[in-house]
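Hi, here's the filled form for the chain we discussed.

Project: internal
Contact: R.S.
Residues: 346
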Amino acid sequence: MQDFRIIFFADTHLGFDYPVKPRLHRRRRGLDFFENFHRVLDYARQTRPDALLHGGDVFFRARVPQRIVDMVYSDLFEFAAEGIPLLIVPGNHERSILPASLFLGHPNIHVFDHPRTFAFEFNGSQVTFSGFPCQRKKVHRLFSGLIEATGWSQYQETCQLLCLHQTIEGARIGPAGFTFRWGEDVIPRSDLPRQATAVLSGHIHRQQVLSSNLQDKSAPAPVIYPGSIERTSFAERDEEKGFYEIIFSNRSSEKWLVQQLNFHPLPARPMLDVTLEKSLQPGDVAGFIQAAVSRLDPGAIIRLRCDPEIDPQTKSVLTSSLLREILPDTMNYQFSSDFHQWKKES
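And the returned structure, exactly as it came back:
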């Protein structure tokens, strides 16, 4: 038997903040997502893995402009022409269905458009990828039936990889490390098939591995989340983004194991807060923000916050037109929820 290697990434959210016909010429975050997407494809082209797996949420929502769809699928079609199998799990942002396209008809592109298994031979070894599109409701109840519908049980003698876009018990998110324990949309780890070599899942944006010991052949299959390729919100501001390169082997035992698990970081712009102090007067706002951002990374994404006791008149000065005038073109900005709350009340 021989080893085999895959590259695993997920949650690319392509099309986010990428206007097809922009009305304003300024930096948009959408290009960051596309650049990291291309970095993953380029790495795979250079290193020639046995397969490339996308764990879901290719796009940032179900309906995206056709130009975005064509851009993405053209890149995937060109990659598939390199002769490397590409597998895709439709995610919840696509509402579990990828946009239709002739590009997806390439024989090296394999989409889990329904519960199914794709079988390959890598270096003389039989390897199967089983999975289904994101089950957006009641996956706790439906999981066993979905696994059975993939035809999983027909491939007992192979290296079996389970490909998902779901929340699995033990996954952590957010700055406080909230941990999913139970729920209708949470898969208990005890329900995962024990014969799986690994569970490869998108959906959770924090890179993490749920496993006590990758090399313990008696342990349950590790659950591997590569996380998103870019920071999609300030809840992810401290998270490193990237993708996994995974080597599987059964040389030291009869059971396939994860031999190597390498995380490759991708560039992510810093996300920083700028808070308006309650003592600010309306005429001081522009100068205060200019002074604050001058000390920050010029490529930062800033979130504008305000002291809860600030004068509403002072807060009202901070408009999008003013920010376009005073912020560097290399920065992106957004308002925090306290600004939105004030606007709603007023």
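Let me know if anything looks off before we file it.
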